[in-house]
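note to self: dont lose this again. the chain is below, predicted strucutre after it. 171 aa total, dont forget to put it in the shared folder this time
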Amino acid sequence: MLLAIGTLAATSAASEEPSRLDRSSEGAATAKVAVTKARFGRGMGPDDSFRVNMAFRGAVKGIRKEESCSALFDDLMVDGLRALSRSRYNPPQSQWERRQCSAGIAAYTVVGSNRVVVCRHFRRLDRRVQSAVLIHEALHTAGLSEGPLDPEAMTAVEIQSMVEEACGLKR
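---
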């Protein structure tokens, strides 16, 4: 599922088995997550790793500092820092992934998966927007679906706007 956000976009696409996050309300309320830095899959270059790590720090700060930001994960019964810390950032590896990225996509994941593909377009974004993209993808990792595949769900643009506002990451 492609999720365009103006020049920014996120995609959910099948490529990995969903991660196992604690979705109990007790787990979400009591989780104490030690978040240090972003985790990477194979092939992430040093420049992109640096950018993602800087955006990751901003995402952690938003979730920790803004109650409205951490509350985005409440309905999913997952701690926001836990979802973010479980994400593993990867460059596009297959031809299909590279095609998705060529459409101006910044990042995408499969709902429930911890594998996040970071596209070249991510480099062109303001650091605050990059941080919001990582939180947006962490919401999908935690189970948030998105339109148009889920007609009852918000669109990518709506999710991105909600994250930027709630997490103090507006441009």
